[in-house]
Amino acid sequence: xRQSTLAVICGAALCxxxxxxxxxxxxxxxxxxxxxxxxxxxxSSASPIPTPTAATSASVSATQATxxxxxxxxxxxxxxxxxxxxxxAEPAIVELTVFDAKGQLLRSxxxxxxxxxxxxxxxxxxxxxAAYGVAKSSDGxxxxxxxLIDFSKTSGLAILRADTKVxxxxxxxxxxxxxxxxxxxxxxVGSSLEHKEQPMAGGMITSRGADPKKDxxxxxxxxxxxxxxxxxxxxxxxxxxxxxxGGKNEIQPSGQLEPLLAPIKASMLGKWTAAPxxxxxxxxxxxxxxxxxxxxxxxxxFEARSIRIGPKRGNGKYRVTFGTNGLVRNVQVVESxxxxxxxxxAIEGLRQWRADPGPNDWTVLxxxxxxx
Length: 372
Known about the structure:
Blueprint: H1 2-25, H2 54-65, H3 81-89, E1 93-99, E2 105-113, E3 119-123, H4 124-127, E4 132-137, E5 142-152, E6 157-162, E7 185-188, E8 201-208, E9 217-219, E10 231-233, E11 239-243, E12 251-253, H5 258-261, E13 292-294, E14 314-322, E15 328-335, H6 340-350, E16 354-355, E17 362-370
Antiparallel strand pairs: 1-2, 1-4, 2-3, 3-6, 4-5, 5-6, 7-8, 7-10, 8-9, 10-11, 11-12, 13-16, 14-15, 14-17
């Protein structure tokens, strides 16, 4: 009995000890201690509107001070459908580069093919004093231009011939010049090698001459200064005019090309007005036209994609010297791309070129554009 009573007393004492221990670990939260997250008081109707901080005020002011860009009156917004017109025309439009008798660069401009056998239309001022020339299309193909076929100082237009064996894409000329209507849209499309954004310019035809087939017409907006030789296209992609003087808002109608194209035969070769005269010889020999027969475009080097310092793209010009056997004797950098690996790729590619054999060495300057 004593043992049993002792056990009950010990158990009760143990329970009391455990209860005090448990209460010590989890004390009740006092009611007079503030909560960590205070409960906000309801706003009073008399309370003033909070004043924004300095940072907020500056941000608001900056937002309100930023003007909303509006299209310039001199640069009308070109309708979206003309972007497709420009893209479709791109393969027939070339970057035309011409050189003097010493092989020095004169200028670059725009031209476009009007016949499958390589007839090329452009501005006469662009090529009037040239001795050599090359045409580079958007696919990177470079064709030798053997000279002028015909030109008109009155209209300021010229027809040249580029060498081709497989034919070239062309732009159709508008057949009915009478359809050149005031308030109709036209766009000026340049070579995509020079102008990454297509088209170059555009606007409504603001006026036309009494004879739409011969008299110049005008477009709304400003024509870029480097637009000489570029075609003006209508909504169907037909050539309605040609820019003959960049920076001047006057365009020759496509009908002015007809008298230049009509007498041309497929066997006719061009001739540059500033080509060097041949040395006199006691025994006259027939002139042998030298031309490039094989001219693959240099490939963009794979190693250039990992360049960390310097440009990954660039434009360069190179002088290619052909021997009497038609093989390349030398390639000289005239204007570097700014990246040695790109210049080396250009030199290696140009060494593969082949030309007609002839009695003397001859040179041609070649523009190269590299892009990854």
